[in-house]
Specification:
There is one protein chain. Helix content is 38%, strand content 25%. It is an alpha+beta fold and 116 residues long. It has a five-stranded mixed β-sheet. Strand 3 and strand 4 form a beta hairpin. 28% of the residues are buried.
Amino acid sequence: MPDKSNEIKWTPFALQSLNEIFDFIVFKERSTSIAQKLVTKIFERTDQLCEFPELGQLEPLLVEIGQDSRYLVEASYKIIYEYHPVKKMVIITDVFHTSQNPLKIERSSEKKQGGD
């Protein structure tokens, strides 16, 4: 049976990215309800990691630089996270639209350390 006691933490960088996504959707769609629905779906997707912390695939661009990060996709957004089994903790390090340059992911590797 899966361990349900994993804690999810968001780094300040990931929360800022999520706020920027929210603001962009509000601007683009002129609707806070559409933006809120997307943010809620992203949070619900990450809630799955409490039970299944290794659900996401390894993120190849971060593996290349020695980070054991994984990712989930919700709608068109990539959610980057790390799982720390000893601490029973999942740390969300970044969220961004998949149409962005994949090398942008490296920006999170420099600023993500706020959640440990």
